[in-house]
Input
Amino acid sequence: MDCYLSLLHAAATWGNQACPPVGSELYAGLLQLHEHLAHSGNEKKLAEINREAERELQQWSERSADYLKLKASEVKELMILLARTAETVAARDQNYGQEFAGFSEQLNAVADLEDISKIRASLKRSVNDLNHCVERLNRDSQQAVAQLKAELVTVQSRLEQSEKIAVSDTLTGLANRRKLESELETRSAEQKSHCVILLDLNEFKQINDRYGHPAGDEVLKQFAAELKAAFRPTDIVGRWGGDEFVVILDCDLARAKSQIPRLEEWVFGQYPIRDGDVIRKVKVFASVGVAEAVAGEAPDSVLARADAAMYRDKGGRQSSRR
Output
């Protein structure tokens, strides 16, 4: 059992280090399984936990493969764009270089003329030809620059989309753990006061056990959408991992705590899921912890206090249910 627990923790840590943009979900999922198994101390749960761990690793491998393919495609596209641009510029410069060489020959020929009228006519033709050449060169340059700008806009759009994917939870579309940690670290570095709300869905495992993981995933997506809608666009709403969610608010503790009744009224409640051919409703509610960060406080410290408050709330809810 100790060996298996050690392997779970190692897989979570190394998987996250191997591909950080998509590793946060694996890290959170495996550590949650580690905690469940460590607290239960029941070897009968080992087979169930093992299936869950295999599922987490499979999903992580698929996310990692998709992410790396996307990055490789972006690098390839940029290299092709640069090579094509360099080839176009080189070909254009070579063509115009030949034309300018021709002008030099014409001007050298003028030196051999003795008739002033012929010299004037030859210079006029050379000047006109040169002007036309410069105009074409200018047009070609403008077209090349415009085309390059258009292609760069497309590439930039794809890079921005890729960056968005890298900081988004693949299931819910919320900010992922990497994004949440980055936001917290930024606020800590800027010594900016803020609050953290931590939510942990209660009895969520029973939904997975009874109706299956697809139904559980659907509940998570619905809950995430409602949670996002309950806050301002400027608030950071994300999935920490598993059935845990985090909200970062740039406000004081009183205002952050005032959001809890709204969550209980508008976010907690009955959610529809499909059970075979039947649509059923399951009750979804969460334990909530709130903590206010003092200026410059480390993110781990703020999260630890929010987590402690959440567990106090969970204990109070369980007592009231008894």
Observations:
- Strands lie at 194-201, 236-241, 244-249, 269-275, 278-284, 286-293.
- The two ends are 33 Å apart (CA to CA).
- The chain has two domains: 1-166, 168-322.
- The chain has a mean pLDDT of 79.
